[in-house]
Specification:
four-stranded antiparallel β-sheet, about 45% strand, about 100 residues, Rieske Iron-sulfur Protein, globular
């Protein structure tokens, strides 16, 4: 198990996303109304970037910038074609003011 430091919690306000990298893994860390979620930054349709696309903080949906597939940020579930396979999600916590993601 590895834990990534993302940023101080005040640098990730509601409605924002921060992308962090650890080796070959990229993760999008989202603040949805004060709740933090981490989603693999890889569209399951064509392995393109996911967290670089648009997202709706009210519905918790990330949109792949390449082909428009929608993913549930909370669960990683693919919601629309062309993607149908979910992407990984990771536990997020705040420790002493620092946002951290657990990568397994």
């Amino acid at each position: 198990m590895a834990e990534l430091d993302v940023c101080p919690v005040d640098e990730l306000p509601p409605g924002s996303v921060k992308i962090v990298r650890a080796g070959e893994i990229s993760v999008g860390v989202y603040n949805l109304g004060g709740e933090l979620y981490a989603l693999e930054d890889r569209c399951s349709h064509d392995d393109g970037p996911l967290a670089e696309g648009d997202f709706d903080p009210d519905t918790g949906v990330a949109v792949c910038p390449r082909h428009g597939a929608h993913f549930d940020i909370r669960t990683g579930k693919a919601l629309t074609l062309p993607a149908y396979i979910p992407v990984d999600t990771f536990p997020v916590r705040v420790d002493d003011g620092m946002v951290k993601v657990e990568i397994t």
